[in-house]
Structure formats: C-alpha cells, structure tokens
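Sorry to interrupt, but I need a hand with the structure work. Could you add the entry underneath, on a fresh line?
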Amino acid sequence: MAFVLLGVLLLVLKLGGWVQFNKDEFWAWCIVLSPFGLAVLWWWWADSSGLTQRSVMNTLDAKKEARRQQLMEGLGQANPSGKKKR
C-alpha cells in the first residue's frame, strides 16, 4: 500500500507541474511510475509466498478465540481474571 501511495503522490506532483525530476521525459516518467511496478511485485510475492493467506488465517484464529472466550464467560466456565474460584 505504501508503494501505491508513493506512486500517487509522485504522479500528482508530476502532473501538477510542481516537481520536475529531470529534463528527459522518458526517465522522469519511469521514476514516477516505478512505485506502481514495485507494488505489483510486492503483491505477487506476498500471494505466492503465502504471506497474505497466513495473515488472513491469523486474523480468523484471533476472532475465533475471542468469540470462544466470550461464550465461555457467558456460560460461567471461564474466569476473566485468571484466578480460580474457591
């Protein structure tokens, strides 16, 4: 997401005429558009390595555990303070 935000910022600066990177237009546009290419590479790597799926699974596991704890407390089976009742 950071690459996309950087790319949008550079694109706005370039199209607005506030910043000129250099005199050669080809290389100036390469600089401006390179964060978008890096974002595509990052997303490809994250998906192919399983990083995205692991993140989703961790989020779902945390939600499941929180829901389980809430249900156990509702049934009176769990003590939120961690101390045993006598």
Summary: The mean pLDDT is 85. DSSP finds three helices and no strands in the chain. The first helix runs from residue 2 to 16. The two ends are 52 Å apart (CA to CA).
